[in-house]
TrEMBL record:
<keyword id="KW-0820">tRNA-binding</keyword>
<keyword id="KW-0963">Cytoplasm</keyword>
<feature type="domain" description="FDX-ACB">
    <location>
        <begin position="710"/>
        <end position="803"/>
    </location>
</feature>
<keyword id="KW-0436">Ligase</keyword>
<dbReference type="InterPro" id="IPR002547">
    <property type="entry name" value="tRNA-bd_dom"/>
</dbReference>
<keyword id="KW-0479">Metal-binding</keyword>
<keyword id="KW-0460">Magnesium</keyword>
<dbReference type="Pfam" id="PF03484">
    <property type="entry name" value="B5"/>
</dbReference>
<dbReference type="InterPro" id="IPR012340">
    <property type="entry name" value="NA-bd_OB-fold"/>
</dbReference>
<dbReference type="Pfam" id="PF01588">
    <property type="entry name" value="tRNA_bind"/>
</dbReference>
<dbReference type="GO" id="GO:0016740">
    <property type="term" value="F:transferase activity"/>
</dbReference>
<dbReference type="GO" id="GO:0006432">
    <property type="term" value="P:phenylalanyl-tRNA aminoacylation"/>
</dbReference>
<dbReference type="GO" id="GO:0004826">
    <property type="term" value="F:phenylalanine-tRNA ligase activity"/>
</dbReference>
<feature type="binding site">
    <location>
        <position position="467"/>
    </location>
    <ligand>
        <name>Mg(2+)</name>
    </ligand>
</feature>
<dbReference type="InterPro" id="IPR004532">
    <property type="entry name" value="Phe-tRNA-ligase_IIc_bsu_bact"/>
</dbReference>
<dbReference type="Pfam" id="PF17759">
    <property type="entry name" value="tRNA_synthFbeta"/>
</dbReference>
<dbReference type="Pfam" id="PF03147">
    <property type="entry name" value="FDX-ACB"/>
</dbReference>
Amino acid sequence: MKISTKWLKDYVDIDIEPQVLAEKIERTAVEVDEVYRLEKGLKKIVVGETLKVEKHPNSDHLHVCQVNVGGDELLQIVCGAPNIAAHKKVIVALPNSRIADNVKIKRGKMRGEVSEGMICALQEIGFAENVVPKKFVDGIYFLPEDAEPGMPVYPYLGMDENIIDLDVTPNRADMLSMRGTAYEIAAIYNKKVTLPHLEIKENQNDNVANFLEIEAEPELASTYLMRIIKNVTVKESPIWLQKRLWNAGIRPLNNVVDVTNYILMDYGQPLHSFDYEKISGKKIIVRLAQNDEVLTTIDEQERKLDAHDIVIADEDGPIALAGTMGGQSTSVDEKTTTIALEAAVFNSSLVRKTARRHNLHSEASMRFERGINRKTVVEALNAAAQLIADLGNGEVVSEIAKGALEDAAPVEVSISLDKINNVLGTSLKVADIENIFVRLGFGVNIANTMFTVSVPPRRWDISIPADLIEEVARIYGYDKLPATLPKGELTPGHYNHSQNIIRATRQLLEAAGLTQAISYGLTTSEKAGRFLMQPSESTQLKFPMSSDRTTARMNLISGLLDDIAYNVARKVDNVALYEQGRVFYREVGNDRPVEVEHVAGALTGLFKTATWHEAKVPVDFFLTKGIVEHMLRSLGVTGRVKYVQADGHEEMHPGRTADIYVGAEFLGFVGEIHPNICKEYHISRTYVFELDLGKIMGLVKNHANYTPVSKYPAVTRDVAMAVDKSIKNSDIVACIKENGGKNLTKVELFDVYEGEHIATDLKSLAYKLTYQNKKATLLDEDVTRDFDKVVDELKEKFAAKIR
């Protein structure tokens, strides 16, 4: 909201430096983005009058102008503007002047003709293009006829006004108007607000009932009013109105539209003007749109409506999107003579959804979404109608057409003096609090130390005692509040079980050589449905930021593959990443998903590059599986961890993927990405794992305890056997541990062989068994007895041929 201090001074008698005022507003009410003055940095820019305009002899688009700038002699200026004409008041940058962007204008020649300065467009002296009147966008601006040649142009264009650009927060929508801001400034500086009220002059010979009939459902529009202004001449607005608008960041269009925008800035009340003659049936209905209805809005876009859009309709269908944008079919143009002027309070929730759905966020929709002063709707409508009549030589038809009218009453809130002081830590007196409420323009009744405050409708953000405490703190001054340390019993902080597991998981994976990645929790529907560890419905966003962020993720791997693809595209081929985060599963029939903690990793390329004394280590299945084993073992997961060959994951390589179990509990999977997925992401062979960290947290843990190093020697035995190729290493290891006796401490596979000197359907496996007793020296016969038992069991269970 751009606030002109000159306009503000019409309502509040203040004479304060703009920077000081802005700093006070920022400390008390809302943030200030910028304080500026358009004339700042400009130099020697004056009013000129073009007395003679001739074509340039050496150019088909330039003109040579003789310009009166108030001196004894005329200046000759070469101008290329297509709309340059004689006997016009124009903006002239004199020789050695400064225009926008600190550009210096010098005397010179253009195509052989002397040019003593420059005739300027508004953009060239600092105006934003979106506020320049359309007829002057591609040319120079013509000043009013009463502009005096030689005088500085700044007062004629409002460039001598200080502008404070407020960043208004949603809870202070009352400051999205000049009058609302005036009340705030008056409260801050304990000043009186003086607001003008334009008196309505109605034509009693005609009645609005002869023109319109209105129907409005209160749940769609708690207030819906219309006035008729007839015999209007649509034309350019006077310069005072144009100055007010472009200083507020709005482009002037014509006297009708400009008045509605002026009232929007002044009262904060959105209005819309219809060409009455273009309304079919002369009956206006405020209703919900029907599915597949179509409306062409004034931006010439055809919009397909749905049943959640509020529309203004005549007998032929929608003519406007309520609170958002008008329709092209009833827009005001230069031929319009009768105006139907609308003022309303629409359902804020539905307006917000419509603005988002159609991407039509405007000054009007923003105010309807955040709230408007319901007490001044009628006053704003009357002021706009009378101003349109005054500027367009029209007449206001008597009476207001009412579809709905809400009775806006003050809200009463009670609070005690002790409550205010206890919360703020102050020692304010009853008189101090009363003075603050009076400065804010609130009614107040006091009984002992209890305040009953009557809050006017213009401050609809205040409804509970906490709101009153905030108002007292603001006006009293946040910088005056005492600073105190919190009191309470100090207790040592600590992580709970889940937090410990999460942090330990991250530390283990980082120690293993992986780098943490953080991916978006939202992705595409296709990516969200991949790598699922359990059946789940997808969770779709109703209003996604983009087509790439429509669905809550149900896996972490998709995000990691995006990260790997990003790195590979930038020539980083060796990548090892992990992510710990939540996925979102949803059962059929449930509206909300369940959040589950997961951990996942993705590795591609080389895990370790070659050096002068070490060979390179490429990423493969066993390296990735080893990282998972190390993590589970270090987290203290008890029970037998099993890796079972899996072929149920469509996105994984069918022969190089294993499901991970602890007992019967499925924890996740590890393996190679399917080549088709790698091709989609434009990455090379990649290995991944994903585990349900929530299930890991629920398993019984073996906490690591220190065990002294045994002082007794260990004894080893090797066994090599030929077994069928279908037999798994994990089954053999389990058999050895089950029958190896109490002194067996370690089983290691150190050789695998297939080829010559062994049958084609067999493979050779060699294991080292380590025995150790921590309390005594082992006897050779004891070790031999336990080892023989293992050998016999391997022969019987697996038909192993001992080599």
